[in-house]
Structures are given as structure tokens and as C-alpha cells.
Amino acid sequence: MESLNGRRPTVIDVAKRAGVSKSTAARVLSDAPNISDSAREQVLLAAKALGYTRNELAVSMRSGRSGMLGLVLPDIANPFWGEVARGAQDRAADAGVSILIFSSNWSAEKERMHLSTMMQARVDGAIINPVADQLGDLERFGLPCIMIGSSAERFPDSASIGSDIAQGVALGMDYLRSKGHLRPALIVGQRTRLARARFLRAVHEHCIKHDIDPVTLPVEDADYTTEGGALAMRRLLVRHEGGHLCVFAANDLMALGAMGAVRETGLHCPQDVSILGFDGIQAGAFAWPGLTTIEKPARQIGAEAVAQLLKRDVEAAQGSRIYLPCTLTERGSIADLRRKSMRDSVASGERR
């Protein structure tokens, strides 16, 4: 690598070494078209020899683009949101774009602070699971934005991407029904959270479809955490009047917490209590028994949100929502009551 007395090499240095004009060197280094192969090769060899790297700040100031996107998540400690971030980061990296990741921790004040930081960083677009009802400067300055998560429904005029919650809940309820669990107890989020309403609405629709009164399903509110799930599970066990108990939790962290509470009381899953989760985080695979869950396409949500921003057609997509389907991941936390009932019937007949 050629020394320039400690200073950073410039486009002019590259042009001189390659024997071309400054404009030609600049066009090659910005990957512009219509450059002869020989000139391109000369410039690239000169840049490598000098150790030249682009001044991205200067480039962004000239182009009006920073080459960065912002991602604001509600809780990066929740593995589901970590997967969303991974999908967004991978897709951004494929496109040569950087992504700034923030966690609001469900705080509207922190969200405002992060949005302000993104504006100062001059990001080219933002992906947000909104906590606040208004996004202030982001809306006022017209920054391209994609909403994700259940909270996106509060912004009907914005483009958004998320899981198909209605389809996922129906998938879970159908699965439980196939195993003989017609009236599962529900562990859902706090009453202030839109995700809770969406989950319960989907359960209600499924019950009506199958001629079941949704009021007969026990419901416990909880934080979307393992601690919240454990507390809700203890309350359900106190209320339970005997027999096999089935629980459908609105996220996997609550489901895992519920499994822990079952063990604490000396009961067993799935022999005494069946538990179904919702999210598909990897921790469910390492629980004992493994957690059966409805898996949301977390990485796909993050990747698709970045892809939509990179298309630069967010304005044309205003008000549109992309619903990505959920899938069932079957492990060992659900008892098959119908098979058990059949075995009991056979055994009873043999005794007679």
C-alpha cells in the first residue's frame, strides 16, 4: 500500500495514479455505467494500491441519502423481536445498507428519543413497531416509514407488514380442537395492548364458527413475559375445577412461564396441563417438554419491511398491509385427549 505521508487518499490521488481524470475516477468509484473496462481496471487497481475508501459522509451529503435505515422495536430482549431485527439486518446487508436498531422498551418517551436520533442521523427510511399514538417529526418531515406488529393498526394510512394473527389463532384453535381441547383457557396481554384485542377477536370468531360460547373460555391478563405467564397460570390453576387443563398463551414467553408454574405445583405437562404458545421463539425447542407453538414469520417480517423501503414505493403503498401467514410447530406440550379417550374406551371394553 502506497504511503501518502499519513493522510487519507482522495479521488484526486486515485485519478493521478490511474492516469485518468478526476471525474472518470469518481464515476468508477461510484460504480457508474458507461466506463471502459480498461479505465475501470486502472482506477480500481489504483484505489487498492492507495488503500482508498469512500468518504460515506461526504457521499451522503451530496446525494441526500445516508445509506442507513432505522429500526425501532418495542423490546429487543424478547427473542421474537430479536429475530425480526435479524431478518431486517440480513436483508439490509444484502443491499449494502446499514441499519440502526433501537429498543423503546414499550416507552413512548424512549420511542420519541429514538425517532429524534434517527432524524439527526438522516436515515433514509424507518421501520417501527409504534408505542405512541403519534410519531411527531417522522410524520411531519415525510420520512419513508413501514409499520410492523399489531400496533400498526393504529396507523391505517401507513404501509405495514405483520403476521396474520387471525389465521394464526385459527390455526392454533383448530389444532387444539383436533386434540380434543374444545375450550382452552387463554393467557393474553394487558388490556391497553392492541395485540390482546386482536388475539381475543380471532378466538371469538373461531368459537362462534364452531358453536361454542366464547364466554365459557377462562381468560387471564398478563405481561408478555415469563413472569407474567407464570402468575397467570397460577391464577388459572386456582380457578380450575379439575380434569385436564388446556392453555393457549398469546406469546411464547408467557407459555414458557406457564410451564414453569405447572412444574412448581407438582403437576406435569402435558399429562395434567397442555400448553400452546404463539411466536415460535427458539427457546421453546429447549423446554421440557418442547413447546408446541404457532410460529410467526419473524425474520420474514424484518426482511420484507426492509425490502419495501428499498423499493422506495412506500407512498404508493400507503394504507396497504401485508399479512404473512403463521405456521404450526408441533412438539410435546399438548396431550391428545381424543387418543387417550379411545384407549380408555378400549380398555373399558376389554374389562367388560
From TrEMBL:
Ribonucleoprotein is among the record's keywords: no
Cited Gene3D superfamilies: 3.40.50.2300, lambda repressor-like DNA-binding domains
Gene Ontology terms, MF aspect: DNA binding
Keywords, ordered alphabetically: DNA-binding, Repressor, Transcription, Transcription regulation
Pfam families attached to this UniProt entry: LacI, Peripla_BP_3
Domain (HTH lacI-type) ranges: 9-63
Keyword Repressor: yes
InterPro entries: HTH_LacI, LacI/GalR-like_sensor, Lambda_DNA-bd_dom_sf, Peripla_BP_I
UniProt organism field: Paraburkholderia guartelaensis
Superkingdom, natural source: Bacteria
Protein name per its UniProtKB record: LacI family DNA-binding transcriptional regulator
